[in-house]
Amino acid sequence: MKMSVKLAAIALGAAVVGGGFVLAEGAVRPAEAAEMTVYKSDACGCCGGWVEHMRRSGYRVRVVPTDDLAPIKQQLNVPQSLWSCHTAVIDGKIVEGHVPATAVRAFLKTPGEARGVGVGGMPTGSPGMEAPGHAPEPYDVMSFGAGAPTRFMTFVGADPA
After folding, report:
1. CA triplet 32, 33, 34: central angle to 5 degrees?
2. CB atoms < 10 A from the CB of 6, how many?
3. Which end of the chain has fewer CB within 10 Å, C or N?
4. Minimal CA–CA distance to 128: which of 93, 87, 99, 94?
5. Model pTM?
């Protein structure tokens, strides 16, 4: 009898792990649909911070190290005004720069005609750009690919404004 209880517990655990992701806050939610591929320099600490932000938010992330991001950004038609220090691709959509996971999730749910979202530059307080002793600055996450880039969401740090 004890063996069947143990097997049931193992099966339940496998179902939870296979079908969901446990966040640091303790909530269980479905795992993301696909793996995110991030192109970044191994030497860039802020990019590593953003990757960890995405992982903590439930995304599976594969990092492709490169020191020449310009050809990748050009191939993906990322508007130069949005170029930042790393570029990611998930489910065929592009995520450029320090975009918070909240915005990535919202965009993937309703991308419309846009090909991607991006944050130009490296705003203080955005995921990966946290700076102790410095207040986070407001910044816009822009959608692009369906005409001129347009504001998708506004943030202060990693929080929607």
Report:
1. 100
2. 10
3. N
4. 99
5. 0.80
What pLDDT was estimated at residue 34? 76
Contact 84/98 with Cβ under 8 angstroms?
A: yes
Query: CB–CB of 125/136 below 8 Å?
Result: yes
Backbone dihedral angles phi then psi of residue 29, each to the nearest 5 degrees:
-145, 160
What does the block give as tokens for 110? Answer: 């309703």
pLDDT at 29 over 50: no
Residue 146 is predicted with a pLDDT of: 80
What is the distance of C-alpha 160 from the center of its chain? Answer: 15
Residue whose tokens read 């793996």: 35
Give me the residue spans of the domains in the chain: 1-31, 34-160
The 8-class DSSP code of residue 25 comes to T
CB 69 within 8 A of CB 89: no
Identify the CA nearest to 96 among candidates 133, 141, 128.
141
Tokens at 112, concatenated:
């419309």
What are the start-end ranges of the E strands in 31-136?
A: 36-40, 61-65, 87-90, 93-96, 116-118
